[in-house]
């Protein structure tokens, strides 16, 4: 499926392609030949019942799966055509290009808001002088929708913010290393409805410049924030696979597979 470019936005970000991804923990196969294209400058939602492999798939996209000692995988992940698992591709480069925001906000609690935002720069070997750093902090906090709330207390600890603010701080921290793709694993599940709305607005705003892939159990959220959806299912102890994917409105109003209809209408999962 090829979506047209987002009109008038100068959308950037990279196209992410997963090709025939299979995954195992030990000898337990949890994903079977999953292929999915996540178009540049768009939001793709991964939906499906618990345990069907959505988080595993997401973690494979930026090479976090390999952190689990028993984990293995097959297949390819291409960012604008380049395989992040190719020999010679550096792990740090994959993680810089493909950032991740987790379910539970995880800022460095004792570190200042300012230093939280710039904390990834060292890892990427980026050196900035004071003014450039200040500009970057303002830019990233603005994009994450947090600047106005924290501009007067940048030296206070990140841990002093509310949960929703901490999550937006984590988004700002991810943006500071200029990723092309941002992966989000249930980023609102620990947040109240107001903070959830705020993060959803941020996701829509960011989609103009980074490609976003979000795992969510909240069907209303998938409908609100995503351009396209992929429905994962692991039936009767078989590995997870994609049943159907396509533009979000069609997935919700006229899915082609009855299992998708049952899931999005809340009949199981
Ligand atoms: N670290 C691990 N070690 C062993 N098995 C794992 C590990 N992480 C996940 N699994 C297994 O892999 C399968 C897929 O899990 P995964 O977390 O990817 O599913 P999910 O769809 O994201 O679930 P949820 O929606 O509940 O987060 C499950 O059977 C799970 O038990």
Automatic annotation (TrEMBL):
GO molecular function terms listed in the Swiss-Prot or TrEMBL record: ATP binding; ATP hydrolysis activity; phosphate transmembrane transporter activity
GO terms of biological process kind: phosphate ion transmembrane transport
The keyword Cell inner membrane appears for this protein: no
Superkingdom of the source species: Bacteria
SUPFAM superfamilies associated with the record: P-loop containing nucleoside triphosphate hydrolases (SSF52540)
Key word Transport present: yes
Keywords: ATP-binding, Nucleotide-binding, Translocase, Transport
GO cellular component assignments: membrane
ABC transporter domain location: 16-264
InterPro entries: AAA+_ATPase, ABC_transporter-like_ATP-bd, ABC_transporter-like_CS, P-loop_NTPase, PstB-like
Annotated protein name in UniProt: Phosphate ABC transporter ATP-binding protein
Organism, as annotated: Streptomyces chartreusis
